[in-house]
Amino acid sequence: MPIDYLRKIQLGEFNACGYRVCPSKSAESVIEGFYVFSKDTGHDTDLIFNDGFPVLVFLQDIDDAVSVTADSGTSKITAAWASAGPVKNVRVKYDSGTAQIFIIRFHPGAFYRLFGLSAQHFRNNPVSPFENIARDNNFNIAEFYQSKSINEKVEFIQRYIRNHFTKVDTPEILHKILNYIHRQKGRSTVQHVVNDAGINYKRLERSFTQHVGLLPKEYIQLQRFIHAYVDLVGSEDVNLMKVAVSNGYYDSNHFLKDFKSYTGKTPLQYLRSQV
C-alpha cells in the first residue's frame, strides 16, 4: 500500500480524511482492518510498501487507474490492485479521477487461503491487478463498485468472506511468532525468534514460506524498516545513526542500504523529495 498510509496505520493517526473500520467478528480472523484515505489532490504519486500484511487497494471508481512503475518497467492497473511480499522501489501514479482509496489489510496467510493462492504468488510481482485474482474466485468487481458507501463496501467484502472462506489453517505457533516479531517491531533476529518459539529453524522457515510467503529474515526486515521509516519521517532533527540503532540496525550503513533498496533513494534524497 502507499507507504505514508501505512505510516499512519502504524501510528494510529486517524481523522476524517483517513480512518479505520473494524472487521466484524466473523471476519476478524481474515482481515486486520478496513482503511479509507482521502488522496492529497496535489500529490499524484505514491511509494508502495508492504509490511507482510497482504492488501487489496480499491480506487474510487471502477474506471480509475494507476500506472505502476518498478525496475522491470511500467504497467497500468484499473480499479484495484493486490500487493504482498517485499515491494522494492515501486511507485504508483494516479489518474485524475481517484480522490479516495479503500484498503483491505489481511492477516498473513488468510489472504492466500481466501483466494486459493500459493503464498509465493507475489514473489516476482508484488503489485498486481486484482482483476486476475477476482476472475478466478468469483469476486465480482463490478458488483463491488455498485456499493456506494464505505459501510456497503465493507459488508460486501465480509459477505464474500462468509460465503467463500472455510477456515484459518495458520498454525498457532506461527501466530505466536508473528505477534512476537510485531511486539519487537523488527528489533530481533531469527535466532531470537527461534529461541522464543522453541522450534528449530527449518520448521520456522517452512511455516513462513507456506503461510506468509516470506523467509523469517525477510519478514523481520520489513518490520524493522517500516518502524525506522516512521521514526525518520517524523523526526525534526534527522539523525540517521540514532534512527538506525534504535530500530535494530547495526549501524546507519545497514539502514541506508535497506532504505535505498525499498525506496530507490537515500534517506536525505527521499526527505528532500517529499517537501
Number of alpha- plus pi-helical segments: 12
Unreliable stretches (pLDDT < 50, length at least 5) are: none
- Helical fraction equals 40-55%
Mean model confidence by pLDDT: 92
CATH level-four homologous superfamily name of the largest domain? Jelly Rolls
The neighbouring-strand order within the major sheet is: 1-2-9-4-7-10
Helices and strands, in order, run as: HEEEEEEEEEHEHHHHHHHHHH
The CATH topology annotation of the largest domain reads as Jelly Rolls
Percent in strands: 15-25%
Quaternary state of this entry equals single chain
Q: Quickly count the domains.
A: 2
Shape: globular
CATH class of the largest domain: Mainly Beta
Helix-strand makeup class: alpha+beta
Characterization of the model:
Strand 5 (65-70) and strand 6 (73-78) form a beta hairpin. The longest helix is centred in the last third of the chain and has 18 residues, at 216-233. This protein has 275 residues and is of the alpha+beta class. It has twelve helices and ten strands. Helix content is 43%, strand content 19%. The chain has two domains: 3-164, Jelly Rolls, CATH 2.60.120; 172-274, Arc Repressor Mutant, subunit A (Orthogonal Bundle). Residues 175-273 form the HTH araC/xylS-type domain.
